[in-house]
């Protein structure tokens, strides 16, 4: 009987206590009390910046780029101090890039980096924006800047390696992918891209080693399997190449890669 | 007559070897052209008003991370 009474009391206390625990309110702050016009204006501007950041981010989350551009453009006019000034330019650049205005996005990111030279995310997005715009020289300059800003960054090494490889700068691409592999040896994609560098440089033994490493990490990596097939073709091992292309075709989710692998397999 | 047969035979052999060389070159060219670098990564995501206070925001962490996973790099490109 006593036990039932105790359990009942505990249950009642928990039932009454739960809503109180669940409802937490921020600590009440006194509303600002001032009649100074400059102070009132500063408070109003501060409030507007705060609201427009929230609205701009909500617009970006629903891919409403025009609405996001309007919000962040207004924030920039209001000229908030750092780090919000460069953050607004960064967020605006995302909306501009998504809506195809790469030039505007580039200007915004460069401005963000002028305001805060250590803003690594802005440096990363500048590489992507320049690449999306098809400006390989600008992408390379942005990638160099990103690596200088964050030399231990995997993303910086990856992006500059890809841009350098597209630009046929095999020395830089090799150095970046080697750095990426050294920092993260289990990253199969870095081994693949290092192999692509070696294939471009006619170093088929080195390419084969990197591709075998990539496939040891991820046996279903179809693009690496395909590349290994091409190394076999170019070193005269046709039957090995045929097996590699057949496996690449089976593993590929990309339709173009699959049909090409089948085509090459059937030519052998 | 003998010369005609011989010349025809030589011509046929030359044509056949030419086709073989051409097919080999095509195979080599095709395989070379299709070995491409991986794709560049997409844009890092937006940052909130207070996101960079103390540098505690996901895009900034991804930009500076030393490992591929933390950097939001592709795990493969099939």
Largest sheet of chain B: none
Relative strand content of chain B: under 5%
Helix content of chain B: 40-55%
Distance between the termini of chain A: 87 Å
Instruction: Please state the CA-atom Rg of chain A, rounded to the nearest Å.
Output: 28 Å
Overall 3D shape of chain B: rod-shaped
Number of helices of chain B: 2
Biggest sheet details of chain A: none
- Topology, number of strands of chain A: 0
Q: Quick one: how many beta strands of chain B?
A: 0
pLDDT average of chain B, as an integer? Answer: 73
Query: By helix and strand content of chain A, what is the structural category?
Result: mainly alpha
Identify the notable features of this structure and list them briefly.
heterodimer, A: 268 residues, mainly alpha, 14 helices, elongated
Can you walk me through this structure?
- The complex is a heterodimer of chains A (268) and B (78).
- By secondary structure, chain A is an all-alpha fold.
- Chain A has helices at 2-22, 37-61, 65-78, 84-98, 102-115, 120-132, 136-149, 154-166, 170-183, 188-200, 204-217, 222-234, 238-251, 255-267.
- In chain A, α7 packs antiparallel against α8.
- The interface between A and B is large, with 74 and 45 residues.
């Amino acid at each position: 009987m006593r036990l039932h009474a105790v359990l009942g009391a505990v249950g009642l206390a928990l039932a009454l206590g739960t809503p109180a625990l669940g409802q937490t309110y921020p600590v009440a702050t006194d509303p600002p009390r001032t009649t100074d016009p400059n102070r009132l204006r500063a408070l109003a501007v501060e409030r507007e910046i705060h609201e427009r950041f929230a609205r701009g981010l909500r617009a970006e989350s629903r891919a409403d780029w025009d609405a996001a551009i309007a919000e962040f453009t207004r924030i920039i006019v209001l000229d908030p101090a750092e780090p919000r000034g460069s953050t607004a330019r960064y967020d605006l650049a995302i909306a501009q890039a998504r809506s195809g205005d790469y030039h505007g996005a580039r200007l915004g990111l460069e401005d963000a980096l002028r305001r805060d030279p250590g803003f690594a995310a802005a440096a990363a997005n500048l590489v992507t924006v320049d690449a999306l715009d098809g400006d390989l020289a600008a992408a390379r300059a942005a990638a160099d800047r990103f690596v200088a800003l964050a030399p231990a960054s995997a993303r910086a090494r990856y992006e500059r390696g890809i841009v350098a490889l597209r630009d046929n700068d095999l020395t830089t691409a090799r150095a970046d992918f080697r750095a990426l592999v050294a920092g993260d040896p289990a990253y199969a994609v870095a081994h693949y891209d290092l192999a692509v560098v070696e294939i471009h440089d006619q170093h088929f033994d080195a390419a084969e080693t990197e591709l075998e490493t990539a496939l040891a990490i991820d046996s279903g990596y179809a693009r690496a399997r395909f590349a290994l097939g091409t190394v076999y073709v170019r070193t005269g091992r046709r039957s090995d190449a045929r097996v590699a292309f057949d496996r690449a075709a089976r593993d590929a989710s990309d339709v173009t890669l699959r049909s090409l692998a089948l085509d090459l397999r059937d030519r052998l | 007559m003998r010369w005609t047969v011989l010349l025809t035979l030589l011509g046929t052999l030359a044509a056949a070897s030419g086709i073989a060389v051409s097919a080999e070159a095509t195979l080599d060219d095709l395989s070379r052209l299709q070995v491409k670098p991986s794709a560049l990564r997409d844009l890092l995501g937006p940052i909130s008003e207070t996101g960079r206070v103390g540098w505690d925001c996901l895009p900034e962490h991804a930009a500076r991370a030393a490992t591929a996973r933390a950097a939001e790099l592709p795990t493969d490109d099939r």
